[in-house]
Amino acid sequence: MRAMKILRPLLLLSLALASCTKTSKASAEPPVVMDPVSAPAGSAQSEPEPNALLEEWKGPYGGVPGFDHMDLDDLEPAMKRAMELHLRELEDIASNPEPATFENTIVAIERTGEVIDRVETYYGIWRSNLSTPELREIEGRLAPLQSEYYSAIVGNQALFRRVEAVHRATQTESRTPAEQRLVKLVYDRFARQGAMLQGAERERYVEIQRRLAELHTQFGNNVLADEEGYVLYLKEDQTAGLPDSFKAAAAAAAKARGHEGEYAITNTRSSMDPFLTYCPERGLREQVWRRYYDRGDNGDEHDNNAIIAEILKLRDERVALLGYEDYASWRLEDRMAKSPARARELMMAVWPAALARAKQEVADMQAVARKQGAKITIAPWDYRFYADVVRKQKYALDSDEVKQYLQLDRLREAMFMVAGELFEFGFEPVPEGTVPVFHPDVKVWEVKRRDTGELVGLWYLDPFARPGKRSGAWANTYRSHAHAGGTGLVLASNNSNFIKGAPGQPVLVSWDDAETFFHEFGHALHSLSSNVEYSTLEGGVRDYTEFQSQLLERWLLTDAVVSKYLVHHQTGKPMPPALVAKIRKAATFNQGFATAEYLASAIIDLELHTLDPEGLDPDAFERETLARLGLPPQIVMRHRTPHFGHVFSGEGYAAGYYGYLWADVLTADAAEAFEAAPGGMYDRELATKLVERLFAPRNAVDPEQAYRAFRGRDATIDALMRDRGFPTPKAKAKTAPGR
Q: For a tag site, which of 260, 443, 586, 667 has the least CB within 10 Å?
C-alpha cells in the first residue's frame, strides 16, 4: 500500500515487517547523502553512472518493473541518487517565488518522487522476497541515510510554510472533499513528524529518527536470522501422524536444502502450525514450538530484548518533543480509535469472553488427554494437537480431511470468481516471458473490467516459501491508480509462504491458510479498485484498511465457491454438504485460543507504548502483564515481543496492532448486511455499494463517513461477538467503530 510521496522512507521502514537476518555493523562514519535542500539548486553534479534501477519502466502495460535487470550492486547508488533527486524536486517547490496554492504546492508535491518510487519497489522486493546476507549489509548502510533523507524533507521549513499556507487557505477556498482531505493529510503528516521543531529539539528529533531506522532494521534482521538458522530434519520413522501432503512438502523443502531423503520442518508459521497439529511425538512438538516462539529471545547475537528497550525509549522521547504524553497517544490520534483509551476499551470488552472460552478449551483438551491415558498437563506445544483431537470428537471434523479440498490453484480461481461477481473484474494469465518477474515462481495476470474489457492493471503472485523470503503473507502495490505521469494501470501483488509440493503434485493448504489467501487478495482488490487522483489518498487508516481484506475472507465458504472450487484433489468431487455443515458448525471452535493469542499481542503492544520505558525489561514485562491479564499458560502471544515485527521492525503497526480487532468489528457488521441482503453474499446492489463506498475511495473519505455511507449507520460490537460465538457484553464498548 503506497503512502504519500514525501513520506516514502517512513513507509519503507514501517511496512517492512521484517524478515531479514542480522546486518553487519555499518562503518562508524557512513556516507552521507548530499542534502539538496541546503545546496544550490543549480550546483554542478558529476554525471551519474548508468543504473537500471533508476530507469523508467519499459515494456507493455505502460511500463513494468524491470525485475529481470535487478542487480544488487546497483541498489545502494540508485537509492542515494533517487533520494537526492527527490529532495531537489521538493526544493524546487519550496523555493517557488509565487504564493503557495493548492496546485503549485500540494499537487506539485504529489507529482514528485517518481524515481524513488521505482527504486523502492526493487528494494522492497529484495527485503521481503529475495533477502541475502549481502542485501542486509546494504540495508544497514542505507537505513540511517533514509532517515536523514526523510528528516531533510520534514525539516524543510520553506516547504512546510507553503503547505501550512495552503492548509489555512483551504478553510475558506471552495475545494472538493477529496482535495480538502488531501491538504489535511499532507499538513498533518508534516506537523505530526516534527516540522514545527526548531534548534536543539529539531537536531535531537533527527538523531532519534536515524537511530530508530538502524534499530528497526537490526530487529528484523535478527528475526530472519533465527528463522533461517533453524531447520529440523526428520527421518522417515519420525514422521508418524503427519499427513502425506505435508510430508511431501517437507521432503521437497529438505531436498532443496541438500538433505534429500529427509523431511525439513522450517522455522516459519506455515511449517510450524501443521507440524504441531499432527505430530504425535510430544518431544518433537516442544522442540519445534520453542524454536519458533523463542525467535529473537535466545540471549545470543540475535537477541532483540535490548533493541526493544531502546526503541521504546526513543519513541517515547520523540513524541515528548512533539508534546504528547506517550507514543500511543500520538500514534492513535489520526486513527479511527483516536485514543489509547478507546482501543483498550474495545479489547477489554472482548477479552473476558475470549479468556472464558480459552479456559474451557483447555479443560476439554485436558479431559481428552486424560481419557487417552496421557499423563500430562496440557502445554503450549500440545494445544494445536489436542485441539484437533477435540475438533474431531466434537464436530467429527478432521482438518486434514478438509485440506484435501483446498488446492492452491483452485483457491486462486475461486478468488478470481469472487472478484468477478463483486467487483466485475476478470483475470487472464499473462504469457510467460511477457512481463519480467523476480523469481520463476512468480506468475502474472491481466485484470480487466468484465463489462467493458477495459484493462485495470496486473496482479502478481509469489506463492511459495524459500530461504531469504520473509515469513507470513502480504500485499504490495508496485504502482497505484494515482501513479503520476503513468497510464493509471495498477500493478498489485500478493505474496505467501505456502510449502511447495513435489513436482506435479497439487499444493494443499490448511483452512487458516486458505482464509489468509483470500484476506491478502482483499488488499490487492482494494488497490485495483482505486479511483483516487492523488498518491496520498491511496494510503489508509491502519485500523480501517484491514477491514476490506478481512471482509473478503467471508466468501471462502459461500455455496458458489464450495460447489465449484473446493473439490477433492484426487476425485475432483466438490466438498460434500456434510463436511461443509461440519465446518460451519465448528466456525466458532477454538475462538478462545485464536482471540486470546491475538489480543495478548495487541494488549502488550498498546501497554508497551503507554508506559514509562525507563529501565524496561521486555521479557519480564511480557510475563508479568500476561499473568495479570490471566492468559492461560497453555497460550502464548501470537507474536511474542522479541519477534513482533509488526511493531518493532518498523512503525506501521506500533501501538496499532489492536486495529485488526477494530476492523473485525466492521467486518462482522458488514458481513451481516450481505447475509440479510436479497441476493445474499453476491447481492449485486450491495456489492456495487461495497466497491463504490468502501474500496474505490481508498483514503479520500474519512473511514467513519465511508462506513456510514455503506451501512447507513455505525458498526457496533454485537455482530463481532455473535460471529465468534461469545455472549454480547451487557455494558457495550463505547469504543466500537462509530461513536
A: 260
Query: DSSP secondary-structure letter at 436?
Result: -
Among the candidates 178, 199, 224, a domain finishes at 224
Cα gap 444→432, rounded to integer Å: 8
Q: Give 477's contacts (C-beta < 8 A, 6+ positions apart).
A: 1, 2, 490, 491, 492, 493, 524, 527, 538
pLDDT given at position 409:
97
Strand partners, 495: 462, 474
Which structural domain range is residue 523 located in? 403-549
Cell of 636: 502464548
Using the predicted structure, report yes or no on whether residue 538 has a pLDDT greater than 50. Answer: yes
Same domain, 148 and 42: yes
CA Rg value for the chain? 25
pTM for the predicted model, two decimal places = 0.85
As for how many domains the chain has, the answer is: 3
Phi, psi of 401 (to 5 degrees): -65, -40
Lowest-confidence pick of 35-49, 57-71, 371-385: 35-49
The CA-to-CA distance between both ends of the chain, in Å, stands at 28
Give yes or no for a contact between 532 and 181, defined as CB atoms under 8 angstroms apart.
Answer: no
* Closest alpha carbon to 118 in 52, 48, 51, 54: 54
User: In sequence order, what E strands does 89-230 have?
Assistant: none
Clarify whether residues 175 and 265 are in a common domain. Answer: no
Q: What is the mean pLDDT of the chain?
A: 90
3-state secondary structure 455-469: EEEEEEEEEECCCCC
SS3 per residue for 231-248: EEEECHHHCCCCCHHHHH
CB 665 within 8 A of CB 658: no
Strand arrangement of the beta sheet that strand 490-498 belongs to: 425-429, 443-449, 455-464, 490-498, 474-479
pLDDT of residue 21: 30
Ordered DSSP codes for 380-403: GGGHHHHHHHHHHHHH---HHHHH
For residue 342, how many C-alpha atoms fall within 13 Å in the half-sphere facing its CB?
Answer: 21
pLDDT band at 10 (very low <50, low <70, confident <90, very high): very low
For residue 303, the model assigns a pLDDT of 96
Q: Is the pLDDT of residue 44 over 70?
A: no
The Cα 680–Cα 692 span in angstroms is: 18
Residue 135: which of 21, 301, 296 has the closest Cα? 21
**Do 161 and 287 fall into the same domain?**
no
User: Quick check: is 90 in a domain?
Assistant: yes
> Which residue in 655, 574, 39 sits closest to 343, CA to CA?
655
Asked if residue 323 belongs to a domain, the reply is: no
DSSP E strands in 343-466: the ranges are: 425-429, 443-449, 455-464
What backbone phi and psi angles, to 5 degrees, belong to 297? -140, 45
pLDDT exceeds cutoff 60 at 452 = yes
Q: Are residues 71 and 187 in the same domain?
A: yes
| Residue 104 pLDDT greater than 60, yes or no | yes
Burial of residue 401 (number of CB atoms within 10 Å: 0-12, 13-18, 19+): middle
Rounded to 10 degrees, the C-alpha dihedral 435/439/441/447 comes to: -30
Q: What are phi and psi of 430, to 5 degrees?
A: -85, 125
Q: Of the candidates 5, 220, 12, 21, which has an alpha carbon nearest to the alpha carbon of residue 121?
A: 12
Residue 318 lies in a domain: no
What does the pLDDT read at residue 738?
Answer: 54
Do 431 and 536 share a domain, yes or no?
yes
Domain-embedded: residue 187? yes
Q: Binning pLDDT at 50, 70 and 90, where does residue 47 land?
A: low
Residue 526 has pLDDT above 60, yes or no: yes
User: Both 53 and 188 in a single domain?
Assistant: yes
Paired strand residues for 184: none
- Identify the domain boundary among 178, 193, 224: 224
